[in-house]
Design goal:
Order of helices and strands: EEHEHEEHEHHHHE
Distance between the termini: 13 Å
Organism: Aegilops tauschii subsp. strangulata
Number of domains: 1
GO molecular function, one term: pentosyltransferase activity
Strand content: 15-25%
CATH class: Alpha Beta
Largest sheet: 5 strands, parallel
GO cellular component, one term: Golgi membrane
CATH architecture: 3-Layer(aba) Sandwich
Keywords: Glycoprotein, Glycosyltransferase, Golgi apparatus, Transferase
Helix content: 25-40%
Number of helices: 7
Number of strands: 7
Subcellular location: Golgi apparatus membrane
Oligomer: single chain
Structural class: alpha/beta
CATH topology: Rossmann fold
Strand order of the largest sheet: 3-2-4-5-6
Length: 181
């Protein structure tokens, strides 16, 4: 059920925070941006899932889940019906692989799905590889080298620094979708 903005209710958003690969390097700013839009934000690092029963209750109390592609997004199974799952897709032509793992299943779960695809400016790979490297000019060529290379570079080898203004815009759209006036 959409949250009624006129009654003062705030939709809840759980933000999954990673600590090693695919971490948000500006997670505090991302949490603040979601809160500024109007969400009550629950920041959930890996330690939050140690008590799975409690974490399931937390997720079930939220309208929206946001996280960078990874196993933590499987917790979307605890979102309530009509909840929204937003997957942040890391750089590297990862849209289809990420969608096929998480996005494809969302409608059958009674959830909405939103993607935020990281740009070359938002990946920490720009600090490791020159812009004329295949990581930027032809990421699919890395995929064709096999899953080990894809994993090493695009999944295990990068973090994401969100463009906060762009992220805020996506948060505003989701906020509009999960609330009514």
């Amino acid at each position: 059920t959409p949250v009624n903005r006129t009654s003062g209710g705030r939709p809840r958003l759980v933000m999954l925070l990673r600590r090693h690969s695919r971490a948000l390097t500006n997670e505090a700013e991302a949490v603040a941006a979601a809160a500024e839009v109007g969400f009550e934000v629950v920041a959930a690092g890996p330690e939050a899932v140690r008590d799975m029963a409690h974490f399931a209750e937390v997720v079930n109390s939220c309208d929206v889940m946001v996280g960078v592609h990874g196993a933590g997004l499987t917790n979307m199974v605890f979102l309530p019906h009509n909840g929204t799952a937003m997957q942040i897709i890391p750089w590297g032509e990862m849209k289809w692989p990420c969608w096929s793992i998480f996005g494809e299943t969302v409608p059958d779960m009674g959830l909405r799905y939103v993607e935020y695809e990281a740009t070359a400016e938002e990946t920490t790979l720009k600090d490791v590889y020159p812009r004329d490297h295949p990581v930027f000019t032809n990421p699919v060529s890395i995929h064709k080298q096999g899953f080990d290379q894809l994993w090493k570079i695009f999944l295990d080898g990068q973090n994401v620094t969100l463009d906060i203004n762009r992220f805020r815009g996506v948060m505003q759209q989701i906020y509009q979708d999960v609330t009514v006036t």
